[in-house]
Each structure stands twice: as structure tokens, then as C-alpha cells.
Amino acid sequence: MPAQLLSQPNPPPDPSHIPDSILSLRVDVPKNVLSSNELDSIRRFRRAADYIAAAMIFLKSNTLVEEPIKPDDIKHRLLGHWGTCPGLVLVYAHLNAIITRTNLNSLLVVGPGHGAPAILACLWLENSLATFWPKYTRDRQGLSALIRGFSVPGGFPSHINAETPGSIHEGGELGYALSVSFGAVMDKPDLVVCCVVGDGEAESGPTATAWHAYKYIDPAESGAVLPIVHVNGFKISERTIYGCMDDKELTALFVGYGYQPRFVEELNDIDQDLASSMQWALDEIHKIQKAARSGNPIVKPRWPVLILRTPKGWSTIKSLHGEYIEGSFRSHQVPLPEAKNDPEERKMLQAWLESYKPSEVLPNGEPSEEVLSIIPKKEAYAAYEPIDVPAWIDHGVKKGTQESCMKVVGKFLNLVTHSNPTSFRIFSPDELVSNKLDAVLEDADSGRNFQWDPASRAKGGRVIEILSEHTCQGMLQGYTLTGRTGLFPSYEAFLGIVHTMMVQYSKFVKMAHETTWRQPVGSLNYLETSTWARQEHNGFSHQNPAFIGAVLDLKPSLARVYLPPDANCFLSTVAHCLRAKDYVNLMVGSKQPTPVWLSPEEADRHCIAGASIWKFASTDDGLEPDVVLVGIGVEVTFEVIAAAALLRKLVPQLRVRVVNVTDLMILGPQGSHPHALEDTDWDALFTGDGESDGKGRRYIHFNYHGYPVELKGLLFGRQGLERVTIEGYREEGTTTTALDMMLQNHTSRYHVAAAAIRGGAKVNKKVEVDAHEMISYVMHLAQKDREYIYANGADPEGTFDVPKFD
């Protein structure tokens, strides 16, 4: 069966076996909100917007169909998605009307982002488009430019993106509109986000979890989301799950989620139905908020949700070549795909477009007064609010001690939350305590904000913990794109769950940079810990550093990856990332106690530079080395230091330089990234090619926290890479000890030492003469340690004592 078989358009769901009594829980409201003038204006607005949206898909000229449509009037490629457009226009028109009537502060988030023609048409009608895109003036010329330029090179793309004024959601990948909306209303008590969730999107896992997000909204401090589930019954070529559920099933579902469902489905009176339903929903929201803000909150309030049932592709042609179009999946994209070449289809297109009577609602290419009457007079802007980041250096820890990076950072984040009680939040998938960031939970007003738990209800907590990475990511995006700053801490292995969401967000920011009017926003900040290097208690399933590579693949101007080597460096990095704008920041570190190698002042300089020579672990402060050993990451850097100490004893004639890299992006070829080192600076750190001084090429060994292939790709383009060796995570692991994890992945001190001897032997004859013997001995020590681990279930005593250099 190539596509859905249909016996009728807009097919109803089969009746369920749920008792009819469940329907007493759905909401009925009187349909009497609109005056006759308002009703007429809304209908005219819809006709105008539907016309423009349809014309955008098909026409490149004759944009008001003032004469018969000719083949040359039709675009060469017909791109766009009509099916969702009438429903989006319907919602947009009524949101405009209720804003005009009540002075509501509102945003619209559109889950079906492929319905861009509808949103662009509405923006043009209200003149918001011309504010940001002057060529789309609200006149015949601007309308022609909009219609002609849709989905063609140089014009608007087929999906909503950052070029769409008012958008805070990249509209390509489905599933995240609801969580983005909830993030947007946090700490904005007067904001109501109207969120359209398509019934195709409603099938996604992220949407299914996001329905619970209201349980993290304190109505005393935050705004509200009004979800509108648009049930038009079809995806690309099949019926939707929600479209096959009757009112009893949907009522049971949403009542179980904690909502009051109101069905909007009276097609013959849809405008009064929707207007009354939206007014009821707004009244319910205000009732819940008023109770909370007067000190008498409703425990477990039932928030409103609207379920809008309209036909797919409503108002298009009824059928074509014996197949249903309106009310079927065939209206999802282009209802008349051969209109340019088929006279019959072209005639049907003419009749379809003329059915909206464009001469009435768009006289001479401008909206009529009736259309304009429901358009709000004000526009909403969300300005970036820089947060107050305390001076981290005052909270640094003592050099030479052992500290957990996460414990130290947790205390700092607690200060950040207190300094920014309405503009900073932490979104975490139930891992703060495990990740040793629990200092942020010490005070009620900086702790959790789970409103269904009496222990954290109405306390002003800054932490959202929900075991859904998708929901955390969506909330973080909504919070960030409405001007605030957030942080997403997670187990390293599971950040990959939001890989594509992060990529979609980066596309949004990339396009925002290319507009002239988008203002800066805070960065998307990820804190990655519980890493593979110390996940020995959980095992192989929890060992996966692949999210580093996901960030490296982003546009270089957006991507930042940091692997601070100790607690002071991590403090510096966190403070920097929280202040930064418009980036995707990834910080990777350990939650276990590890040495504090640098004082706060030294860490500050090290982080500013992105990398430095660690003289204390190098021979003669790193002068004239035979080999350069590079650590990138907390545990692998410890192994580099341990290797340097071992080499000092076993091969004293080998001259070693130790380098630590904390900013991964410095390593790319000159000019490849804003942080990439100049070639001369690269040579100063890692040595030159050896030809100019006649000493031969010094070999460089990288001990890297992530997958070696990532570092190879990053380094590609640098000169002299034949002298570089790399070890990193080899996809080896289990429930074992910390040292065994290093041994299994060839990142242990012994593997580093062996690589150093091999490299040094190529330029130092004194090392070369004993190289084979010493490498064999070093790897013998590795084997002995592994035998001890498997015999005793623990690393040899003293394995992680801080190495000493005499």
C-alpha cells in the first residue's frame, strides 16, 4: 500500500469503548465572544492570509490573479506545505483578536514549522514583516515580492526559522515546540505563549514528555502556555494517532496529563467556537495565576488545552483525478503539483485562489480596513538580559589540593542563582546530586522547582530536574531565546540524546547572525561530567564522549569546546561561558577529586590562552624538548603528568615538554576557528617542524579525552602532522577501575610514556639506544598493574597520588 487508502475525506475516528461518562470532564463553553464586526474581520483576515499562503506556494507573477493564470505565472519548482496552513492562519487570526481585545502579552510558537507560508502571510498582513525586511512592504509591491520570493533562492525558506520575525523555534525537526514554550514563560509572569502542536508532532517522544512541563511552572512567578493541539488527521501519507482517537480517548489522555480539554471542532461556526474557547482558556490561566499570586495557590491546577479539529488542507480543492485532496494527506504539501503544465490543474488553481475573493480582502494589494482592525498595535520584543556572574577568582581553591571540579563549580553556581533570581536557571535530567553539583540545592530559593512536590512547591527554586533530556533542552532553548541564561548539566554519555536538537538550535543562531535585526542571546551552555574516564561503576553503557564531536561539527563561529584540567580552570570556564553570547558552549570535566594543578591566577592566564606549557612537569621548564606530551581532559592529563614523572625516573636523558589544552578549538588550522592558534603560536607551544634549527622534528603525542578521530579532523590542515600520534577513547570499557579504563583505551601513563620514548628516540640518540628495552619495560609495568587490578578488584595503592618531580 503506497499511501493511505481513504473511503471519505476527513475520516472520523472509530468509536472507543471508554464510557461516555468521561466526556463530563471535557469543557463546554457558550459561543458568544465575538461581535458581528469582529467575526467579519476575523473571517476576512483568514481569507487574506489563506490566499497569500496558497499564492506563495504557486505564483511568481499575476500575484493577485487579476487575469487568467498562465504557465509562466507559476514557479518552476512548487515547494511548500499547504496542509497545516489554514489551521495556523485560524489560530493566528484569533490570537491577534484576543490580544487586541485584552491587551494580552503573548507569543506564538508553531510546532508545524513547515507551515511557514501561513505565518509569513500573517506577518505581512500585520506589517511586522516590513519592520525587519523592508522589501516586504504592506502594499502591492511588497506582497508581490513575498509571494514571488517564497521557497526560491534568495527568498524565505519553506520552514520557519530565525529569519521569521517573532520566531523562537527552528521549525524543521518536530517535537520541541511545547518544551520551548514552557521555557519561554519561565520567570515572565505576564507572558502567555500560545503553542500550536501538530498531531503529527504529537506522536514524538519529546512532545509526549513535554505535556508534563506544567508541573514545573510556578504560576506565582512565571507565565503560562496555552497548547492548541491541531488535529487535522494526517501526516505525509498516513493518518495520525490523534486523528484516530475519539473525543473520549483524547479527554482521558489530557485529563490524565493534568489538563482541562476543550474541543474546538464546530466547522460551521469555527470562529465563534475558537474565540470562546481561547477566552475561556485565558480566564482559567488568570484564575490559576491570581490564586498563586495572592498566596492561596491551587494545588495541582488543571490548566487548559484546546484540541482543534479541522480538515487537512481546509479550503483547497476537494478532489483531483478521483482522489480526495482536502481532508486527506494529499493536501500536505502541494495540492496541485502539475499546475504549471496541466491546464486542468491550472484552472482548478484559479478557482481555488479566487474563492478567497482577494479583491475584497486585498484591494490593490493592500489589506482592507476590516482585516486591519484585529491586528494588535504593539509588537513584542525579548531583549537579552546579561546575568551577574560573581568574580570566580574569589572562590578559587588552593593549588596542590585535591578537589572535585563539580563540587567547586556547584558552590559557584549557587552564588550565580542567588545573584540572578529571575534570569538564570539550571535544566538537569535528574543528575545534579550524582554529578556532585548538589550545592545548588542547599537553599530553597536556589533548589528544585517541581510544583507537584510539596517539598519544592512555590519556593522560587532555580533548578528544573526532569528525566527527559529533550524537555530540558527545549526549556533551555525557550529560556535562552527569550533573553535569559541557562545551564544544562548531564552525564556525558547521554547528552547525545539531544544531539539533533542542539544542531537545530545552532542553525537558528547561525541564521540569526545573518539577519541585521536579531539581537544577541545568551549561549547554550552544556556541562558534561560523569565521564567515561570515571564511569567505572556504571560500565560500558555510560561511557560515550561523542557529544564533543557533535559540537565540533557545528559552524566554527558558534562552537566552543572546553576541557578544563582542574577545579580552578573549570571555575574560570563556567564564568566565561555564562557571560558569553550566541555560542554553543560545551564544558567537559570530572566529578571526582583530582589535583588542583594551578592557582586561581595561573588558571585565569591558562584559560585566557587556551593552552600552556606546564613547566613543573617538563624538563628544564620545557626548553628544547625531544618530545611534546599533550593532555586534553582531566583524567588523561593526570596520566600525562604521571607519564612525565615516570620518564623522569626511567629515561632521564629524554627531554619532555608537557602541554595542557583547555580550549579545544585552538588546535584547528590557522583561520579555521576564531580561537585557532596562529602558526607561530602553534610552533611556540608544540615546536616547529625542526627544519630551521637542524634538530629534526620533535614528535607530539596527544592524550585526548574524546574519540581520536575527532582530534585528527580538528588538526587536519596543520603542518607536520606525520609527527603527531593520538590516543583517546577507543570504545573500550566496562565496570572496572579508573586505571583499567585508561589501560583499555591506551591513554594510561604507560602508553603515554611508551609513545614519548618512541618519539624522542627519533631525535635523541641517547634515548634511541635504550628505546626498545625501556618501552618493553614500561608496557610490562602496565601488564603488572592490570594483573593486580583483576586479582584485587582495585587499582594498586598510590596509583593516583599526585606525581612528584625531584
Question: What this model shows, in words?
Answer:
This protein is α/β, with parallel strands linked by helices. Helix content is 36%, strand content 12%. Strands 10-9-11-12-14-13 form a 6-stranded parallel β-sheet, sandwiched between helices. It has a 5-stranded parallel β-sheet with strand order 1-2-3-5-4, with helices on both faces. Strand 19 (699-704), helix 21 (708-715) and strand 20 (724-727) form a beta-alpha-beta unit. Helix 1 (36-58) crosses helix 5 (140-149) and helix 6 (177-185) crosses helix 14. The longest helix has 24 residues, at 270-293.
List keywords for this structure.
five-stranded parallel sheet; single chain; alpha/beta; Xul5P/Fru6P_PKetolase; six-stranded parallel sheet; 806 residues
Secondary structure layout:
Blueprint: H1 36-58, H2 85-102, E1 105-110, H3 116-125, H4 128-132, H5 140-149, H6 177-185, E2 191-198, H7 205-210, E3 224-231, H8 247-257, E4 259-264, H9 270-293, E5 303-309, E6 319-320, E7 323-324, H10 343-354, H11 358-361, H12 369-372, E8 402-404, H13 405-419, E9 424-428, E10 463-465, H14 469-481, E11 485-491, H15 499-513, E12 524-529, H16 547-552, E13 559-562, H17 567-579, E14 584-588, E15 593-595, H18 600-609, E16 611-613, E17 627-632, H19 634-650, E18 656-661, H20 679-686, E19 699-704, H21 708-715, E20 724-727, H22 738-744, H23 749-761, H24 765-768, H25 771-792
Parallel strand pairs: 1-2, 2-3, 3-5, 4-5, 9-10, 9-11, 11-12, 12-14, 13-14, 17-18, 17-19, 19-20
Antiparallel strand pairs: 6-7, 8-15, 16-18
Helix pairs in contact: 1-2, 1-3, 1-5, 2-3, 2-9, 6-14, 13-17, 17-18, 19-23, 23-25
Organism: Somion occarium
Cofactor: thiamine diphosphate
Domain Xylulose 5-phosphate/Fructose 6-phosphate phosphoketolase N-terminal: 35-381
